[in-house]
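Lab notebook, bench 4. We co-purified these components, and the gel suggests they stay together. Before we commit to crystallization screens, I want a quick structural picture of the whole thing.
Request: model the full complex, all chains together.
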Amino acid sequence: MSGNTSKCLQLENINPNFITMEYAVRGPLVIRAGEIEKELKQGVKKPFDYVIRANIGDCHAMGQKPITFLRQLLNLTFDPELLNSPNYPEDVKARAKTVLEGCQGQSVGSYTDSAGIEVIRRQVADFIAARDGVPCDWHNIFLTAGASPGIKSVLALLRCKVDGKAPGIMVPIPQYPLYSATIAEYGMTKVDYYLEEESGWSLSTAELQRSYDEAKKTCNPRAIVVINPGNPTGQVLTRQNIEEIIRFAHKNKLVILADEVYQDNIYDKDSKFFSFKKVLTEMGSPYSEMELASFMSTSKGYLGECGIRGGYMEIINMCPQVMAMLTKSITASLCGTTAGQVAVSALVNPPKPGEPSYEKYIAEKNGILGALKERAELVHKTLSSFEGYKVNKVQGAMYVFPQVVIPPKAIEAAKAKGLPADVFYASELLESTGICIVAGSGFGQKPGTYHYRSTILPQTDVLKDMMNKFQKFHSEFMQKYK
Amino acid sequence: MSGNTSKCLQLENINPNFITMEYAVRGPLVIRAGEIEKELKQGVKKPFDYVIRANIGDCHAMGQKPITFLRQLLNLTFDPELLNSPNYPEDVKARAKTVLEGCQGQSVGSYTDSAGIEVIRRQVADFIAARDGVPCDWHNIFLTAGASPGIKSVLALLRCKVDGKAPGIMVPIPQYPLYSATIAEYGMTKVDYYLEEESGWSLSTAELQRSYDEAKKTCNPRAIVVINPGNPTGQVLTRQNIEEIIRFAHKNKLVILADEVYQDNIYDKDSKFFSFKKVLTEMGSPYSEMELASFMSTSKGYLGECGIRGGYMEIINMCPQVMAMLTKSITASLCGTTAGQVAVSALVNPPKPGEPSYEKYIAEKNGILGALKERAELVHKTLSSFEGYKVNKVQGAMYVFPQVVIPPKAIEAAKAKGLPADVFYASELLESTGICIVAGSGFGQKPGTYHYRSTILPQTDVLKDMMNKFQKFHSEFMQKYK
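Here is the predicted assembly.
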């Protein structure tokens, strides 16, 4: 009775989309990194002492300390008896009371509305209105467990064949693999538009139109995803570029999905974050009536609270009946975690100047963002000096995405192992240095080019160690295969 | 430019499954209950002072206090500085340290493995092994944000047409609407089998076979869902009944989905919880090789931590390649919330006799379960005395599901309002007493019968008030329509 033929579920009769989907950020190389960590613990000899996980934007895993204010707010809401403790500042206590009053039975252990705790949704709306100088209706805010579930629920809404054609979703290449994975999982068509590496990963209308026209032949393009600041590319879109995208989307009746989770991560002095909501609204009619979903997370920025799973989405200009169906689809998952919702409250309603927590909060926030800026520059400068590398500036987000000219002999060696050349490069790097990065093919890249994504998150001493090991590896790799 | 014709998304071109799906537990009556609460706050005069939310198993919302041990564990993991505080017991500190050592960078702010923190998965496996007296492999454990995402991911795995036929999922009627909602969302076929109300909501093999044979004509039945203890029915399956279901599933090559989230909620002295895992394993080959997914949550039992979103699933005997695909599908959602994972740790690794926290923990646990038992009996006794009611014992879970003989004149009055008779009854109850229950049609019921689900969760004084209001309402309703 052993063997798989006796099983109800086999590869041939399960969801075929599960088989095609890929999610490189947690793919085989990352699994291998985990194995190596275990081997090191067991005393297996390696040419390195520890694994550097530069594969994922996981700030605390790389040593970033949590913002005290956020953790205090969590403590006070999860254990209201601490409201009597003198160890917590009054302004944080007041915020905790506000949240608790918004919970059924004054407990974060109760289910919340599926769209989240009303008082926190209102705080998000105030935050967005202040950020953009444009009104925001709290009914349009949904609290989500990180940005991912929000993105998935909007993509699921678009899952509808029109005139027998599958829905097409335009995504930038390179892109964050949540999009490719979800589009594959949902059986939709991914419509690639390429960012221009030569001009700092900018976005040209001509390329958008080319991509759209080509896709039109086989699917029904319904939405465009824009990631700003860019992941994995680290670019920050100019206001003019955003306006062009909005005009393009309007002309072609596309819903805009704006992934803006890195809005606080801007390092380049000449770059500035503009939200799609702000630009679209300020462009006036008809653009200001366009359907837009924008996504934010507590996992990035300066909080870096990835494990807590907090986030929100704002959806504007959607027809009320459709909004009702989206809302209904979310109710079956009951609600997002209250810890994540409290984290969102900390994100959008931080201590104000003059309040007891302010000085500590602002020092911690500036410290984290300052250190990220330094590391963005360090990584860019170091990698730019490598032979055969082309590296765009890290204007924002948490990643660098260098192009590596891989010598033909290395491409052959990769082929012999049945690996794409960029995966081979990343795999050799991992095995010989312990540095874990993600090959460019996981994000998409122009055919014949090779890239990888590395985070800029390791703390400065580790990052310097990483850059040294990387330099040594790369020069040996080039010597071997040139 | 106003009006919906200008919109990209309209009811005609969005995911059609979103339109058909229903989720009664958070349906229109519950939304109305929220409106009534706001009206009361604004001073609108009503024949009652407050809304009693008996529609959802939301323990803390109804006044249940959190288990101190769980909240302390959360505090210590979210703010490790408290590990130096004398206010926390040593055994809880030791547990917190174990969890933190399992987190990247020793922070709950880091992403965890998609299947959850390894040390907590191991704790779950130990807990299951001790519960069942049967081995449990921690690799088979996935930590989930409540039970719902686990159930949804297993159902998504089954989403595959075979021989052109849609997958069929057998669900009990009445059932918890997560199943009907997800099956509709995923475009699968719901295959109803009826529980026998006359014999205390038990499950007959003849009915299973009838349901299966009928379904075979139009779909491809692939799995059977069993909810034990039952939601909304409150029954606890006997071991013999479980064996029959397992034999039936084996004969018909069905994967078993065992929803066992109420396993700690047993009130009837003659009832006992047996897990499907235990029974199936002890039945020996070939049953012990069957594919089974079982689900557990921190939202129910005696913890009642609905908002934190903790849960786990155990999947056994699945072919490794299929398991890999399921795992891959989960990675794109990154990971469940760490707060929920810590809550799972509290559930499966509670204080042991002799440890400093034990006395308080066990007193709180027994207090909660004892009070639930009392209320289960009170609700059953009171409702049984109502004219035209048939009420089965609440053997377990958190609900009562009475059958109400609704007089023909009331059915006519409902029709005039365009409502099913059970929705009319529940709506009249809400408007005249503030009691919010869910009509039986949200769970499914035999045609021509009318039921509703009420929780047994209001604290005893509120519950007595609720029963008095309910009695008055029902006798007036019967007078008016008899």
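The longest strand of chain B covers residues 220-227. Worth comparing against the SEC data before the next meeting. Chain B has two domains: 16-51+364-481, 110-349.
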